[in-house]
Amino acid sequence: MDDIVIKAENLCLTFETNDGPVHALKDVDLTIDKGEFVSFIGPSGCGKTTFLRVLADLETPTGGTVCVNGMTPREARRKRAYGFVFQAAGLYPWRTISGNIKLPLEIMGIPRAEQKQLVEEVLDLVHLSGFENKFPWQLSGGMQQRASIARALAFHADILLMDEPFGALDEIVRDHLNEQLLELWAKTNKTIGFVTHSIPEAVYLSTKIVVMSPRPGRVTEVIESTLPKERPLDIRESPEFLDLAHRVREGLRAGHEDDA
Questions:
Q1: What average pLDDT does range 133-139 have in this prediction?
Q2: pLDDT tens digits, one per residue of 177-216
Q3: Beta strands at 159-163 and 219-224: parallel, antiparallel or unpaired
Q4: Which CATH architecture is the domain 4-81+158-259 placed in?
């Protein structure tokens, strides 16, 4: 029980709009244990991002319960139990990379000497040492996203929530960042929740893949990965990888058929 980091039971979220209610999430049951890398995959509008936003206290559920580190999402936010990486890097252009990473530390009132040490640590983790005095516009898209990850890591939260962070990047850069993310996860042993539209990305990164249905978003299948923790890129050509990818694809197809 102590290993459970995230637990949702009968979680529902309905948005009230001028055109009527939109049922974003329905009866979601999910448990995530400490140190797991969990990907959420499903069609656009299925509630993947909404679920992450509920965990981050950016959306309020209309039914069911959800716990983050044994707390409500609001309590977890106040205790800074997680870092959040959005689809866009969201770096302030007038601040250096170091200044962007320091921002949450400044807000938290952490002493300057400690801020400097934390920034150095996370820049090293994301392979950006030496770029601390650059401005965002001087970095590539992939480097900007790594800086965004560094900012989310800076205050040592146990949980990292990532909303399709590599979706806008080209395939070569994306592959490279996938490798680096697995390396970072191995070093930090954080619990990661990761939204993606890419089946290969979900299979390559995850210990557990959560397949979601079209709206209203439901968990139709949870697929446990059988791949080893160390995963070179060429593992994607292995029969085991291809079998897992096939299972995810079939799960997505079944979710569509159930909704039809």
A1: 96
A2: 999 999 999 999 999 999 999 999 999 999 999 999 988 8
A3: unpaired
A4: 3-Layer(aba) Sandwich (3.40)
Half-sphere exposure of 109 toward its Cβ, with a 13 Å CA cutoff?
0
Give the amino acid at 60: T
Computed from CA positions of residues 98, 68, 168, 223, in that sequence, does the dihedral angle turn out positive or negative?
A: positive
> How are beta strands 159-163 and 82-85 bridged, if at all?
parallel
- For the chain, give every domain's residue range: 4-81+158-259, 89-156
Output the CA–CA distances (angstroms, integers) from residue 156 to 23, 153, 159, 185, in the order listed.
Answer: 34, 6, 9, 13
Contact assessment for residue 77 and residue 57, using Cβ atoms and an 8 Å cutoff: yes
Q: How far apart are CA 141 and CA 178, in angstroms?
A: 14
The position carrying tokens 């989310």 is 152
CA distance 208 to 202: 9
In the chain, what is the straight-line distance between the N-terminal and C-terminal CA atoms, in Å?
37
Q: List helix spans (H) across the chain.
A: 48-55, 73-78, 97-107, 112-125, 141-153, 171-188, 199-205, 239-259
